[in-house]
Amino acid sequence: ESGTQTSFLVDPFNLSKTIKQRGVNVSWLWKMNSRMSANANLGHTNIYFPELGRRDVLSTLNLGLNRTFDKQVTGSVYLRHQQGNSNVPNADYDENALIGSVNYKF
């Protein structure tokens, strides 16, 4: 039904046949030396579900460091802040995450 408000627990992508999305991302990469690099990404996205009358705004900031330890081992650490705002009650959120990984090539 057009104009129906959706619950936070219901995925609007499954309920809507039409999704209008616009956004912008800006990325920056700095090679600090032959083994280390830093990167940053800033994004802003507007999502509109016309059939549901729902509008969401998603803003994201990612900061990361990448390190090559040797030819087979690399590591990364990322700090992420994400903020979601919606015209649907109780659907706004803030997320902070610290993500680390180690990769080994056989």
Report the uncertain regions.
Answer: none
The radius of gyration over CA amounts to 19 Å
The coarse overall form would be elongated
**Helix coverage percent:** under 10%
- Assembly status: single chain
Number of strands: 5
Order of helices and strands: HEEEEE
Q: What is the count of helical runs?
A: 1
The CA-CA distance between the termini, in Å, is 54 Å
Structural class: mainly beta
Strand content: over 45%
Mean pLDDT: 90
Can you describe this structure?
The model has no long low-confidence stretch (mean pLDDT 90). Helix content is 4%, strand content 63%. It has 106 residues and is mainly beta. It has a five-stranded antiparallel β-sheet with strand order 1-2-3-4-5, with no helix packed on it.
Could you list some keywords that capture this structure?
about 110 residues; mainly beta; 5-stranded antiparallel β-sheet; 5 strands
